[in-house]
Amino acid sequence: MKIVSYNVNGIKARMERLLEYLAEQQPDMVCLQELKGADETLPVKDIEAAGYGAVWHGQKGFNGVAVLARGQQPVERQRGLEGDPEDAHSRYIEVEVGDLIVASIYLPNGNPQPGPKFDYKLKWMDRLADRARALLAEERPVVLAGDYNVIPNDDDTFSVRAMASDALMQPESRARYRELLAQGWTDALRTRFPAGGIWTFWDYQAGAWQRDAGFRIDHLLLSPQAADRMVGAGVDKDYRGRERASDHAPTWVALR
Which residues are known to be catalytic? Predict the structure, then answer.
């Protein structure tokens, strides 16, 4: 079973690339982020025609997450995170498919830092940690997949110096990510590539793709029950190099 995290950076702009990916790779589940579209404008029929059921959580112009499942309809479990009733951002959707629980996550960027956007990022991570802890207590296979906007380690970026002042690499961001893992989650890609040096994002600016100046911010965290079933993980890097591609590459884990 191939489960993919894919920040599409605007689903309307990337629809051709997304449908191409679904047809060529036929992943079993795809967690999408940064849809940048209200629910009523999302391409539900096109996704259904490609053979996927989906649960959508859109937002006009910004954010937006979804979970797609091949040949079946995911069952929605939770929309958004508890702990801040005034938070209207569409950044979390959680579904069930068979015995598996899967969440699509679009964690706040947090720039510029310091400031209110960075404060919001850290509080959002605290709320995510609360939800993750509750999911672990269910003792079921769970995958928390998404764009975490956190570079966990120095070897997860092409240049520590270039990213040193970015919210993605601040000690507070990294500490919260480590605390999440310490609950008992397995970072699938890190387990497969323990030496780092594998990227999931390349900026559109300054020839980052051509220079391979990327970093790893798309993560798939597995509960112990899911980690026991892991048989592989990777990045479908070639899709980043296609015409009008997202600045993220599809990142995946394979489970028995």
Answer: 106, 147
